[in-house]
Amino acid sequence: MLRGKALGLAGLRREQQVREAIDYIASSFRKELYESLQKQLDIFRENLVLFARKYRKKIENEPEFRAQFHRLCVSVGVDPLVSKKGFWEEILGIGDFYYELAVKISEICIATRGINGGLILLDEIKRLLDNHNEGKLTRRSSKRALLRNSYQISRDDIERAVQRIQVLGKAYSIVSFGNIRYIRSVPGELSHDHSCVLATAKKQGFTTESKLIASLKWSKERVVLALKGLLEMELAWIDDQGTECLYWFPSLYYPIDD
Amino acid sequence: MDTMFNKRNLRDSSLEGMQFKLSTIISRETHEKLDNPECFLSAEQLNLLDRSRGLYLRYSVSNISHVCLDKRKEKKLFSRLASIVRIQLSNGEHILLGFRHDSDQSVFIQKLENYLRQHRQKKANDTNQTPSKGVGVAGIMQSRKEQVQQGEEQLHNAFKDLESLMSQVKGLVELAQKYQGSLLESKVGEDMKEVVEFRNMAASLGVDNPVTRAQLGGHGDEFHRQLAMEVYRTIEKPLRKNGGVMNLIDVYCWVIRARTTTELISPDDLLAACEMFGRLHVPIHLSILESGVIILEAGFMNDDEIAKKIFELVQSKTSLNAVEYASVANIPLLRAVSRLEFCEQKGLICRDEFEENIRFFPNLYF
Predict the structure, then answer these.
(1) Using one digit for the tens of pLDDT, what is the confidence trace for B265-295?
(2) Entry pTM
(3) Domain at A94-189, CATH class
(4) Yes or no, beta carbons of B337 and A233 under 8 Å apart
(5) Residues 1-20 of A with CB under 8 A from B
(6) What is the dotted CATH code of the domain comprising A190-258?
(7) What is the pLDDT of residues A84-112, one digit of tens each?
(8) Which of A84, A185, A192 to mutate to test the interface with B (most CBs of B within 10 A)?
(9) Which residues in chain A are closer than 8 Å to B257, comparing Cβ atoms?
(10) Secondary structure, 3-state, chain B
(11) Which of B1, B70, B132, B194 is the most exposed place for a label (fewest CB within 10 A)?
(12) ipTM score assigned to the predicted complex
């Protein structure tokens, strides 16, 4: 108890005692919190085991239930896929599912890249995955086959898998054209599409979307992305006075041996 | 499943919506205890509910074939009880309820048997009214309807269980945040045991804490070193075929497919392994581009050497623009642009902009 002003050395000592008392209370409060946290965590772990016993199959087999599970996790602020040693992976076993799915997705992307330039419809991937699940045998051993065959994949799962894999960099991303979603597996930095467009436009110095589609046989979305990239690199001018947008490339006007 | 009631007196023990208060339930499968559970009957189901943990178990009354006293006393847990009641289910399982007081147990058996009798009578009446239950189209429709109802009920239960689990998680997350707050306030040192343990707890729960990410994976240096060598062996050829550049996600796919064991490595492990390339003198270079894309590039070249090469190229050709550089070096256009800009920042080349046409010249001025 401080009486009036804290006087001299005695006052300082008293202050210090008060501070120490407060610190002691704070640290014992903290210890209590810690213990109750431990205890609650143990209780939760037991409950999760019970829950998993009942619902693990359901999560594995029903995409809607799985999506609801994830939504709730997000709303609570918990990410069940964050750690391989976490409760969720250990007890519910969902970590591996998304990584395996991501690998399958990237296989498909790599295989189709030659045709579509790295831009593939989300629904197309889903269709290919469903076909794959329906029974094409692979040469891989059957240990992995268990993982592959029994799950039903939803669009939500595909998007989550892509999100999860972005810890390895944003090379794969989901782009939308209007309502339609694509997975882009070749980011601008790694795409030779821009050089292709320039090569096609070399003769006339300019081009349009439809010309590119006709001569390169690309999808409209791929052309649009390539042109967008060129615009951002300031290598293209856009001219929208006519019926269709024209794209001009100044860098083609001044060849090196001028 | 063994269910044990402990000492508490059974209060409010009438059935159909009223409750029994119990003190523990032990599940045989997992040997766990639930504290302060409630037991009540409703909608023709026997419910065992633990409010504090939000967990409950249900058994449909129609599945109960009979109730009787059980003579078993062999387990240590049963020795403190006066009597054991056995509820036999029609699928072969049974539930054992232990009581400490004989009076409780007899009351319980009486009430439950009454209820079962009423329930069976009601069912018999119902079936009498639909004599052709399993027959014909009406029968099929009836059983389909029941199936759908059952399915809906199961789904409903599933969602309820899910929500109760999540509310528990929510409580846990809040508690963890409180604790974290008090840790910060008291300025406990970073390496203290408490802090480390807290981080582990948060990580296993999946609470998103940027600090915990750094400690995940749990595999040591040695594992990453071996993994790095494995990645190098796997990726050497594909990398060359791809012009010396591959994005890390494709690398992940290749590595997983090439592994003959079934253990999946996590992306974090791959990242850690690739970061060790420099230390291990592996001729692959991990670089992170501005947009967040991570790539592996073949060759020992680091950024400075690339810049020097660009400078020499510009010198030999007097001037260079991005398109020319891209075709000479056979790299994507965007990479060419970013490399040229990097070289410019280093002061080796400078740009000349004329009508949107940007050319680079050797920097003779600084």
Answers:
(1) 778 778 888 888 878 888 888 888 878 888 8
(2) 0.61
(3) mainly alpha
(4) yes
(5) none
(6) 1.10.10.10
(7) 566 777 677 677 778 888 888 998 998 88
(8) A84
(9) 103, 107
(10) CEEECCCCCCCCCCCCCCEEECCEEEECCCCEEEECEEEEEECCEEEEEECCCCEEEEEEHHHEEEEEEECCCCCHHHHHCCEEEEEEECCCCEEEEEECCHHHHHHHHHHHHHHHHHHHHHHHHHHHHCCCCCCHHHHHHHHHHHHHHHHHHHHHHHHHHHHHHHHHHHHHHHHHHHHHHHHHHHCCCCCCHHHHHHHHHHHHHCECCHHHHHCCCCCCHHHHHHHHHHHHHHHHHHHHHCCCEEEHHHHHHHHHHHCCCCCCCCHHHHHHHHHCCCCCCCCEEEEECCCCCEEEEECCCCHHHHHHHHHHHHHHCCCEEHHHHHHHHCCCHHHHHHHHHHHHHHCCEEEEEECCEEEEEECCCC
(11) B132
(12) 0.73
